[in-house]
Specification:
It is a single chain. By secondary structure, the protein is an alpha/beta fold. The protein contains 17 helices and 20 strands. The protein has a seven-stranded parallel sheet, sandwiched between helices. Strands 14-15-16-17-18-20-19 form a seven-stranded mixed sheet, with helices on both faces. Helix 3 runs parallel beside helix 4, helix 5 packs parallel to helix 6 and helix 8 crosses helix 11. The radius of gyration is 25 Å and the shape is globular.
Length: 502
């Protein structure tokens, strides 16, 4: 039976869809590690959102009880107990201290997702605040056992964003496409105000990409307004591939909610409108960090004033580049993986190697013990490494991961050279991390990820016969000795890993 994660979050036209969608991001990361996800939501959850959850492989229960009430807590406890879940995740401002205590009193392990310390006391095992302004003093009133996961490195991004990790954006001289997205519900129809701003901007060559959520009731009025503009407008609803739209656009106008983390990650310069009180701290801090442009509170903005703020950024590529670089510095796209690593107590998590890791990998490769164990033991010049690494990154048959421990410290690398359904593996552990038993974990985790993301069925390993420590690690990770052979002029042991039958 799969390890089961229960996620309690609500969404509708009044409270929006952000709580459910970020829980979906966490559920996807949990599923990627072999687990299963079950959502528990309010009875007014929009049908398209419920369908999205099911299409993502999650199961769903809706509750009739008032959200956040004692009856809600009792139903959630009963369901979690019956299903023998591993963790319960709770996300929403109507879940208070009493709600947490009820779940903990039932013996459940609890992750509580929060934004601004709205509960009087925190008794969850883990409290997650993914906002860049998150600080421990917000949670001064917490149990001694409660651990905090704070800041943008824990930002929960959905599965569709993962292939874009490490991508660098280039800025055009002039903006050609503007993405407008004001949240899943947008009860105040702020999208219309943002759209009308372009009636005051003399750029008929612009294309406006307007995204509205499943629970947005204003699509018809937005379509009518779009027809009056000189710009071409694409009005989209129920979008499932937001990263592609963000990659296509040159500038975004957005609510300063959880979409900010997606835009920062994608390196898309963003102008922020506050449509809820809890969004103001996000806008303030991103403005202070020079990671986004703050436009202000939605009710105080008029289309002409919005246009005046938007126009300078349309023709300032240097400013847009600076915003993009700062955003990608804050959000790297591995937040969901970090949280799942904490939930599962996994010793390691993996990230794909990018050019940002080039120097670290070169230093690891040139460490004397690594060179001695290699089949080509001469030192590697920096220029040669750069040429090799850039060539390999462009090779679809090359896969390399950096391994990170629970303290988010890089501990080693594993790489695969693929050809068809076979691959050859190579591994190294950083000198200051040896002796911690990471090698077998890295091998198991790396091979599992390769098997999950490719059709590789057989992995070869070749180890110098005198390298007894490495041989033990491969055997502990499930590799089997085939025999001895000559490999690159050295006497070696050949080992195989085979994909288990389904």
């Amino acid at each position: 039976m799969s390890r089961l994660l229960l996620l309690r979050a609500d969404g509708d036209a009044q409270i929006g869809t952000g709580h459910v969608m970020r829980c979906l991001a966490l559920a996807q990361a949990w599923q990627a590690q072999g687990g299963a996800a079950h959502f528990v939501c309010n009875s007014t959850l929009p049908a398209p959102l419920a369908e999205r959850l099911r299409n993502e492989g999650a199961t769903l229960t809706t509750l009739a009880a008032m959200p956040g009430s004692a009856a809600d807590a009792a139903e959630t406890v009963a369901l979690a107990t019956k299903m023998a879940v591993e963790w319960v995740v709770v996300d929403g401002y109507h879940f208070d201290a009493a709600y947490q205590q009820a779940l903990k009193a039932a013996g459940l392990r609890l992750l509580f997702i929060d934004d601004h310390g709205h509960a009087a006391h925190y008794s969850a095992d883990l409290v997650l605040n993914q906002n860049v302004y998150a600080q421990a003093q917000i949670y001064a009133q917490r149990d001694e056992h409660t651990q905090l996961l704070l800041g943008g490195k824990h930002a929960l991004l959905r599965r569709e964003f993962w292939p874009w990790r490490g991508r660098q954006r280039t800025s055009a001289a002039q903006v050609q496409r503007v993405l407008i997205t004001l949240g899943g519900a947008d009860a105040e129809n702020v999208t219309l105000k943002a759209l009308n701003a372009f009636a005051h901007i003399d750029r008929p060559d612009l294309e406006l990409i307007v995204v509205v959520g499943a629970s947005n009731p204003y699509k018809d009025s937005l379509a009518a307004a779009a027809a009056q503009l000189p710009q071409q407008v694409r009005l989209l609803q129920n979008v499932t591939d937001m990263p592609a739209l963000m990659a296509e656009a040159d500038l975004a106008i957005t609510a300063s909610g959880s979409t900010c983390w997606e835009l920062l990650f994608m390196g898309l310069p963003a102008m922020l409108i506050e449509i809820a009180a809890n969004q103001t701290p996000i806008a303030e801090h991103l403005e202070a960090l020079d990671a986004a442009v703050r436009l202000g509170w939605h009710a105080d903005l008029q289309p002409a004033h919005l246009a005046a703020a938007i126009q300078p950024l349309l023709v300032d590529p240097a400013r847009r580049r600076a915003l993009a670089a700062k955003g990608q510095e804050l959000i790297d796209g591995y937040g969901s993986a970090r949280v799942v690593q904490q939930l599962q107590g996994a010793p390691l998590r993996l990230s794909r190697s990018t050019e940002r890791a080039m120097r670290r990998l070169w230093e690891w490769a040139n460490e004397p013990t690594v060179r001695q164990a290699s089949f080509r033991s001469e030192p590697i010049p920096w220029a040669s490494h750069v040429d090799w690494f850039q060539t390999r990154l462009a090779d679809p048959g090359f896969v390399q991961y950096i391994a990170w421990n629970a303290d988010d410290v890089p501990v080693g690398q594993i790489r695969f050279d693929r050809e068809g359904t076979t691959a050859i593996v190579g591994i190294s552990i950083a000198a200051d991390q040896r002796g911690n038993g990471y090698a077998p974990h890295l091998l198991r985790t790396g091979v599992a990820e390769l098997a999950r993301t490719t059709d590789v069925a057989l992995v070869y390993a070749f180890i110098k016969v005198e390298n007894a420590a490495s041989l033990r690690s491969f055997i502990a990770a499930g590799f089997h000795i085939i025999g001895e052979c000559e490999y690159h002029g050295h006497h070696a042991v050949e080992l195989h890993w085979r994909r288990p039958p389904e």
